Amino acid sequence: MIDVSVDTLCLVSKLNSSQISEVYNHIDFTQWNGNKVWKHCIYNKEEGYYIYFIPRGGNGKWLGKHYNIMILLQKEALLNKPAIIEYLIRASEWTIKRLDIAFDYYESIDRSFLLRSGKSKFKPYKGTSNYYYYGDRNSKKICHYDKKNQLLERKNIVIDEDVLTRFEVRLRPKLKDRHLINGDFGWVQNELSTIKFVANSGVITKHLKTKEDKQYFRNIKRRQKQDWTSIPRSNKTRIRKVIDEHAIDLHEECKKHGVFDQLKF
Q: CA-to-CA distance for 77 and 216, rounded, in angstroms?
């Protein structure tokens, strides 16, 4: 891995009437228009934050039962901690609604391997290499794509490297679990520990000792739907053992790159 960072953090809170009044006194919302769901929306793309305050009726009625303010923070805001965000974080207790962690590396996406569950969905997009991977009721989604190409298409940014790939884990914890922004992040470790990802699958092939195991693995990697049913148990055990041994420890990479420090306010 070359870089690991928080790409997006979404926080929500249910303010009481006193806290709502304090926010109105501190922030001038008159210059900001709302939308169909929220009465007030503040957008600051340069500093990387978005604030949504007081849900409307209709589409926003359900939201109001659970939270009445939502903050969306991108990498720039998490690194620089704008004053308005610092104020809001201190004003209440915040629950994590969404946490996207980006793992960037210099390998072609075609060389990677992700061990997939038969119950989860694999959805290619923009060609056969980029993909989403998720479950219907899963608390996480994986988005794996050509980052170099995305930078060129969306931002007209050209990088010198021949290849740059992003493996992005998008966590969506249930609000009832109450994962607080300044609380324990053990739940993130639990989520990441279930992901078996290898950036360069050649490492797996190299460490498989028999030609038969190597061929079984190539067949598995080649298929969009990983079907292990036809593979004998002994071969399957050996292959999965090698995958486990060489899968990237995503939680350890997060600690190494200070991801959890980015989440401290």
A: 46
DSSP bridge pairs for 99: 9, 171
The least confident of 156-160, 208-212, 252-256 is: 156-160
Nearest to 261 by CA among 194, 185, 175, 177: 185
Query: Which pTM value belongs to this model?
Result: 0.91
Note the pLDDT of residue 135: 67
Residues 217 and 204: beta-carbon distance below 8 Å: yes
pLDDT digits (tens, 9 = 90+) for 45-90: 999 999 999 999 776 677 778 899 999 999 999 999 999 999 999 9
**What's the chain look like in SS3?**
CCEEEEEEEEEEECCCHHHHHHHHHHCCCCCCCCCCCEEEEEEECCCCEEEEEEECCHHHHHHHHHCCEEEEEEHHHHHHCCHHHHHHHHHCCCEEEEEEEEEEECCCHHHCEECCCCCCEEEECCCCCCEEEECCCCCEEEEEEEHHHHHHHHHCCCCCCCCCEEEEEEECCCHHHCCECCCCCHHHHHHHHCCCEECCCHHHHHHCCCHHHHHHHHHHHHCCCCCCCCCCHHHHHHHHHHHHHHCCCHHHHHHHCCHHHHCCC
Q: What is the overall mean pLDDT for the chain?
A: 89
Q: Is the dihedral of CA 222, 223, 226, 229 positive or negative?
A: negative
- The domain spans of the chain are 3-199+248-262, 200-247
Give the position of tokens 């298409």: 153
